[in-house]
Amino acid sequence: MFEWHLRDRTLKWDRRPLVMGIVNVTPDSFSDGGQHATTEAAIAHGLRLLQDGADVLDIGGESTRPGAEPVSLAEELRRVAAVVTGLVAQTKCPLSVDTSKAEVARRCLEAGAHIINDVTALVGDPEMPAVARHHGCGVVLMHMQGTPQTMQQNPQYEDVVAEVGQFFAERLQSAGAGGIPPERVVLDPGIGFGKKGKHNLELLARVAEFQALGRPVCLGISRKGFIGQIVQRPVDQRLAGSLAAVLFAQSRNAVQIVRVHDVRETRDALEVFAAIQDSEIRDQRSEVRS
């Protein structure tokens, strides 16, 4: 059984993935930009996601959609620090900060966050590994080819799964050498981050292969563009496609965390799927006993 060590607690997995609810405190995120851009709205949204069944909240103040421009340190801190502080005061749920800036991570961890979710896998800011080491927090290492500004221009792979797997192996080794032990690390293949539609589909089809690295896998597929390409739906009509991808991954026992906008619907789908699996296992055991 996987364990994820987060400062003052350890997360363990049972029959379903943990659901990480997305709290975007941004004006320009691809799906819900501007909807929760004030401190009060973001805190309220986070609390709603907890009521809907979120196991973890992921708070971000800088959009990483394709083509997004970076924001200043001061602006990102203004967006997220007060939200983390407000949520810490009202919940004991593990909080993740979605940032590639070491100072944002440090301030949010000091305010009570538990996880750094870094789309650059700790290489975007040379101070980030030291911040993670010092605070003993959980870390999500994501794969991205290029930067948000360039990643979708023309991504190329010979074997996307093998190349992402090699990247993970190297980043795990580097993190360990920097004092971040593997039990604090989760891996995210970065669906939509420097990948064409065919790359995203291959990563999903073979996502179970990353289990060989011995660490939990986080899957972020919610409302992504490749789903829109398949079903020809705008971003606010991609729930069914997102759930299909989540349930496929769960059918392969391939992921331990799903990062989503639609927490209640995802939680319901996973609970029903788990109940069916449990019934199937009971039936198989009854057949063996008989």
Task: Give a brief description.
The protein has 290 residues and is α/β, with parallel strands linked by helices. It contains nine helices and ten strands.
User: Oligomer, anyone?
Assistant: single chain
Biggest sheet layout: 8 strands, parallel
What is the averaged pLDDT score? Answer: 92
Structural class of the helices, strands and pairings? alpha/beta
The geometry reads as: globular
Which H/E pattern describes the elements? EEEHEHEHEHEHEHEHHEH
Can you say what the CATH homologous superfamily is?
A: Dihydropteroate synthase-like
Indicate the topology.
Elements: E1 3-6, E2 9-12, E3 18-24, H1 39-51, E4 56-60, H2 73-88, E5 95-98, H3 102-111, E6 115-118, H4 128-135, E7 138-142, H5 160-177, E8 185-188, H6 197-205, E9 218-219, H7 225-231, H8 239-251, E10 257-260, H9 263-289
Parallel strand pairs: 3-4, 3-10, 4-5, 5-6, 6-7, 7-8, 9-10
Antiparallel strand pairs: 1-2
Helix pairs in contact: 1-2, 2-3, 3-4, 8-9
Describe it for me?
This protein has 290 residues and is α/β, with parallel strands linked by helices. The protein has a single domain (3-289), classed as TIM Barrel (Alpha-Beta Barrel). Helices cover 42% and strands 15% of the residues. It has helices at residues 39-51, 73-88, 102-111, 128-135, 160-177, 197-205, 225-231, 239-251, 263-289; strands at 3-6, 9-12, 18-24, 56-60, 95-98, 115-118, 138-142, 185-188, 218-219, 257-260. An eight-stranded parallel β-sheet has the order 8-7-6-5-4-3-10-9, covered by helices on one side. A two-stranded antiparallel sheet has the order 1-2. Helix 2 packs parallel to helix 3 (102-111), helix 3 runs parallel beside helix 4 and helix 8 (239-251) packs parallel to helix 9 (263-289).
